[in-house]
Amino acid sequence: MSKFWKPGTERPRSSLIDDEEGGVLFVSASASSSGFGYSTLERQRQRLPVFKYRTAILYLVENHATTIIVGETGSGKTTQIPQFLKEAGWAEGGRIIACTQPRRLAVQSVSARVAEEMGVKLGEEVGYTIRFEDVTNPGVTMIKFLTDGVLLREMMDDPLLTKYSVIMVDEAHERSISTDILLGLLKKIQRRRPELRLIISSATIEARSMSNFFHDRKRNQGDAANDSAPNTVPAILSVEGKGFTVEIYYLEEPCSSYLQAAVDTVLSIHDKEPVGDILVFLTGQDDIDAAVQLINENAQDHRSHSSGLLVLPLYSGLSRSDQDLIFAPTPKGKRKVVISTNIAETSLTLDGVVYVVDSGFSKQRFYNPITDIENLVVAPISKASARQRAGRAGRVRPGKCFRLYTEEYFMKEMSAEAIPEMQRSNLVGSVIQLKSLGIDNILGFDWPASPPPESMVRALEVLYSLGVLDEDAKLTSPTGFQVAEIPLDPMISKMILSANTYECTEEIIIIAAVLSMQSIWVSARGVQKEFDEAKLRFAAAEGDHVTYLNVYKGFIQSGKSSQWCYKNYINYHAMKKVVDIREQLSKLLKRFGMSLKSCERDTQKLRKAIVAGFFANSCHLEAYSQNGMYKTIRHSQEVFIHPSSVLFRVNPKWVIYHSLVSTDKHYMRNVMAIDPDWLIEAAPHFYQHKRPNLSAPF
DNA sequence: GAGCACTGC
Fold first, then answer.
1. Residues of chain A with pLDDT > 90: what percent?
2. Helix axes A544-557, A603-614, angle to 10 degrees
3. Which of the two ends of chain A, N or C, has the fewest CB atoms closer than 10 A to its terminal CB?
4. Closest nucleotide to residue A644 (Cα to C1')?
5. How far is the C-alpha of A220 from the C-alpha of A222, rounded, in Å?
6. Any idea which nucleotide's C1' is nearest the CA of A669?
7. How far: A152 CA to B2 C1' (Å)?
8. Nearest protein residue to the C1' atom of B1, measured from CA
9. What is the pLDDT of residues A124-135, one digit of tens each?
10. How confident is the model at residue A305 (pLDDT cuts 50, 70, 90)?
11. Which carries the bigger pLDDT value, residue A271 or residue A59?
């Protein structure tokens, strides 16, 4: 191993943050059990005391700061903060302490842990809210966990979040769209509610930029004379990770194929290193399946070396039962090797991992506002991501991380932080959310990271064409407000509202629910023929949307049977979610005063409703095209019907699609045949080039 | 006849 590997000089867990402005407290995991603790090393370096965690948090919340940035690296300590705050009386008088997480699963598990530590029943003093699940007791719940998306939704009814005395945002370094919107809004709320305390928990590496974002210099100067005013300089608290040390190894020379390098490294670890499971980070399903096969083949070739390996793939497309194999205890005498996408970086935690192999790449979404196309490309990860991956090796005991790139590459080429999701996504959903919260000057909104202006303008343009915004870029009434309230992509929401006019809401909310899923089919490699046959049983001449209606009917007629799903290559969990979303939409429509109506067999009605939402995604089959090439009406972009569509090789003259998948070609997914006259009917303004100058009002 | 990193309301 020494031939290829060079030990790294970087520590995976960065410890302290330099701060020339003062006001920074450091907390050491080794601080004594009560009162103030001091860490000699840190004190010498920083000339600052080190407080005990609890004392530091309370000192800051009570006396000093309106905003506290907790810089930590997987310490797991943030579950204690809400408990400290409750003890200190921040949840008294009907006030609630809110704690957000970016993921539903994290909300459930963290709230359960806190309830257990406090010895209370979940849903009483400690509760949680995620979509479709409200486990809180109004008047009783003092600490409430929720996804940041749910908190944003709550702001539509209560823009200043008046119920909450403290809001803690966890995992802020992940920089998801909803976290970034939330942070921007919280900064605004703080000006109106100086008593609101914010605690932002972030990986150490991002703490400095978070602090800069919340440091409102203008306001601070104005308040300088007033000693009693809350301090607007955010305090940074650095918490040392509780994880074990992870030794980092780099390649001495760059490799030409990370796939082959990963396979070689796994075999080498198995050969030379003591017991402990291996976690390998690759980019996607193709790579992962190939790596699993290569390792297994090698195991057969060299029985003495590679036997005893249990190689398992892990990605979100796998069925639930296949994913669960990862968590089964490793049989005696075996070494588990999990080959995974980024899902193991944040969403799933594996116990027993001692070795991590990091390819240095992941699939990332990029959005081109000019063509309005989102692309999924393999791209280098950030230093922050590399550290997070390495940290996965140190959960049970000291571990090792093998990076399939050189140290020089890590130091000089890798960017420190990932590009925030905001800057590489389509923003229609975010723009309408801000509009509905009364943020009129979207381009001037104070984001933690500003999105490209082109993406903003594109989003405003789309919303205008949908009739959601008027010419002054204000939400239209009632359409704009209703679209904002429906928790789906605005084009889908517009389709639902139009279904009221075309009297087919019953059908459309089912289609809307299915379109909100990744896919309702199970991935069926190796049984392609059977899979295609199963699909044909539901296929409709109109296209994929009506096909989904047939699947849903079948599912309901089967009594929502998982067996039926299995037989028909349908994802049971996805169908259950479709049922939930359909239910949520039906309640929403009732609130809008719309009743559910069925168009029965008249599919023309529902196709017109679909066009009313998706007219911008219309395409025409190229005349004389031998290979089924279409061109989009908007940008004359060459596109093709995806082979998974029921309209593949049928090639109707005019179609609309729900989304594009871009690989070597642009493929349309979820395709429906239309009559071009419907386009003019749905969006005369869009197709007759009478649009006003959209950039003017912004 | 080809392919879907990962969340969320």
1. 53
2. 120
3. N
4. B2
5. 5
6. B4
7. 38
8. A643
9. 999 999 998 999
10. low
11. A271
Beta-carbon contacts of A340 under 8 Å, excluding residues fewer than 6 positions away, are A279, A280, A281, A282, A288, A313, A314, A315, A348
pLDDT in tens, A464-475: 999 999 999 999
Residue A346 has which token pair?
């944040």
- What is the rounded distance in angstroms from the CA atom of residue A78 to the CA atom of residue A104? 17
Task: Round and report the angstrom distance from CA (A301) to C1' (B1).
Answer: 34
The helix/strand/coil state of A606 is: helix
Question: Where residue A497 falls among pLDDT bands split at 50, 70, 90?
Answer: very high
Domain assignment of residue A282, given as a range: 246-422
A173: which 2 tokens?
């370094």
Tens digit of pLDDT for each residue in A277-292?
A: 999 999 988 899 999 9
Distance in Å, residue A40 CA to nucleotide B9 C1': 47
| A285 and A227 co-located in one domain | no
- Residues 274-333 of chain A sitting with CB below 7 angstroms of strand B: 283-286, 315-317
Judged against a pLDDT cut of 60, whether residue A311 lies above it is answered with yes
Q: Per the structure, how many domains does chain A have?
A: 3
Look at chain A and count its residues.
Answer: 698
The answer on A563 and A494 residing in a single domain is: yes
pLDDT digits (tens, 9 = 90+) for A143-173: 999 999 999 999 999 999 999 999 999 989 8
Whether the CB-CB separation of A355 and A296 falls below 8 Å is answered with: no
Q: Are residues A272 and A341 in the same domain?
A: yes
